[in-house]
């Protein structure tokens, strides 16, 4: 994973009664994942948009980290290509540029804004004969690895404790999760809610929904060298994520296939829901909370286009 999660202040959201807390970049709503982007192309331009053949055109991409994960130095790659791009670049079918800067997520504690990055390069407009004109589309892509995390707190009650609470008019604590923001979103829900262990029972079920919440393409993590000159992906690497389900001490996933350290596919880019049974290993005489975390690691790319009309001379 090419980034570390900003976890400051997340712990305050793991207890009941904190619905009024607001932390930019983090969702505190139990059971609901958060959308958003990671590194986002905020602008992609080619100037001038109308040029004579052979003249210089300045292509500029501006990037901002709008996610909840800090991307390390040389952990992302800009890729420029387009129709007849070799006519612009002296024969190359694409240009590659590694972002040589740590792209930090917003630091809400210190009031530090997210990192931005600006990349510019000058291309030479294709040669056309006098009287000819053509419109060219240039494509700018941005590739990086990410991780989206859900950090949870699951409350479990004995039958006796639950009945006593109800008789006294007290509400039972329910599972709650915090989420870091990224282009792939998580939503973790638990059934039943609240969790009450009746005699002879020790199992509940966790549902993990994974969704593409931005407008880019997911690919398997650690498949692209962000300091290299290739973004080639095969079909087996598209729409793939690595999922790590981490139950806290006292909890066990009896069937780990598909629930721990699992390579998962979002078929055709559509939502994926994993179903994981969880066993409570320890006796709960009254009520007890257990940590429960989920991490999704993945690569992601987005693109923008810019057009230039070239006239021959």
By DSSP, the count of extended strands is 20
Average pLDDT taken over every residue:
87
Shape: elongated
State the helicity in percent bands.
Answer: under 10%
* Straight-line distance between termini: 51 Å
Task: Return the domain count.
Answer: 2
Alpha plus pi helix count: 1
Low-confidence regions: 1-33
Q: Please state roughly what percent of the residues sit in beta strands, choosing from under 5%, 5-15%, 15-25%, 25-35%, 35-45% or over 45%.
A: over 45%
Report the biggest beta sheet as strand number plus sense, adding barrel if it closes. 11 strands, mixed
List keywords for this structure.
mainly beta; Immunoglobulin-like; 2 domains; four-stranded antiparallel sheet
Could you walk me through the main structural features you see in this protein, from its secondary elements to its overall organization?
This protein folds into two domains: 7-36 and 147-298, no CATH class; 39-144 and 302-311, Immunoglobulins (Immunoglobulin-like). It is 3% helix and 48% strand. It contains one helix and 20 strands. Strands 2, 4, 7, 8, 10, 11, 13, 15, 16, 18 and 20 form an eleven-stranded mixed beta sheet that branches. Strands 12-14-19-17 form a four-stranded antiparallel beta sheet, with no helix packed on it. Residues 1-33 have low confidence and may be disordered.
What's this entry about, in short?
3% of the residues lie in helices and 48% in strands.
Topology:
Blueprint: E1 4-5, E2 26-27, E3 39-47, E4 50-52, E5 56-65, E6 69-70, E7 76-82, E8 95-98, E9 116-124, E10 133-158, H1 159-167, E11 176-180, E12 184-191, E13 195-197, E14 203-212, E15 217-219, E16 240-247, E17 251-252, E18 262-265, E19 272-280, E20 287-311
